Amino acid sequence: MDSKTLSSSIAKFSAKFCNELDKSTSVVASPLSAEYILALVALGCEGPAHEEILQSLGFPEDDAIRSSFSSMSSQLKSIKGITLNVANRVYIQDGGYKLNSALESDAIKVFDAGLKTIDFGSGKAAQEINKWVESKTNQRIKDLLTSDSVNSDTRLVLVNALYFKGTWLKPFHKMMTYDRPFYLDESTTVAIPMMSAKEEFFYGQSKDLGVQYLKMQYEGEEASMLVVLPEKVDGLNDVIKKLADGYDLLADVEALEETKVDVTIPKFKIETEIDLMEVLPKLGIKTIFEPADSGLTRMLDSGEKLFVSKGVQKAFIEVNEEGAEAAAASGMVMMMRCMPPPVPIFQADRPFLYAILDKQLTTYFVGAFRAH
């Protein structure tokens, strides 16, 4: 699977994932982080469970997972100008339990995952895992697991942490930030801090999707934030649904052109906890959660039956004047008395979608801003 096909499949999964999140509030998620865990699980299961994950993630077979995620792991390490920490770890119950040798090899070579034995019945396992996640996300993600989420029956915990921090290539000036009205719906506004700039950004519109696009680059010009702003105040949920139904967002993003834009956009901070046991079954991934027959037969060397008893993601993002932190030949003709072309106005004063992408247009984080 080449990088463009991979970016496309990640974008499709991200849109479907986002479509299942709470539509009444601001959210942030990293579907890619969930994909890392699911892809590893796919290599350790068979039957319907295996088919469900491959289909949901858009991979034809296991070797496509191996080639895609090994190239993804090296791609993530090479992005310039931003901080991007990707950390994968497999925790295994102490006392004779071992990962299946083929899966252990995949975990290390494909996913760059560390392996650690732990006593899940000790009462301190959740605390130890949480401390590791905290250290990998610059202390932004705390208490990923509750103390009662692991116990002496737990055999395996898969953890993926993804942390992003970027500084804008063209920062906003703090003196240009002040409270402005943001539309919660057509008749209700709330005053929130909005940043402003008149700068060269990547900009475009889509009549089919009914949106304006703005792509702001981070230092290093290898990652960017894309803002998808619906024309209608109440248009966001329809836009997310169209994307989940297969609208090709990346084709639009590739066509954006750099132009001077008058931008107004909120500064914001969002933290979201997602129960993957609610979201994943809606995306067709159900069998791995079934105690009787989960299909997780290739995870451990022992013949013990496994199933996924908990799946959780916590995500964080902060966007301010300096940038974002998240736990992506011209010709001139001179004419006399010619008025300069009007500068497009991009005023994000209503609910919008945002994503953090790299230059291959791989989606790292996706979310919706609704001011509450």
From TrEMBL:
One of its GO terms (molecular function) is serine-type endopeptidase inhibitor activity. Gene3D superfamilies: Alpha-1-antitrypsin, domain 1, Antithrombin, subunit I, domain 2. SUPFAM superfamilies: Serpins. Residues 11-372 form the Serpin domain. GO terms for cellular component: extracellular space. Keywords: Protease inhibitor, Serine protease inhibitor. Belongs to the serpin family. This is Serpin domain-containing protein. It comes from Pieris macdunnoughi. The lineage of its organism: Eukaryota, Metazoa, Ecdysozoa, Arthropoda, Hexapoda.
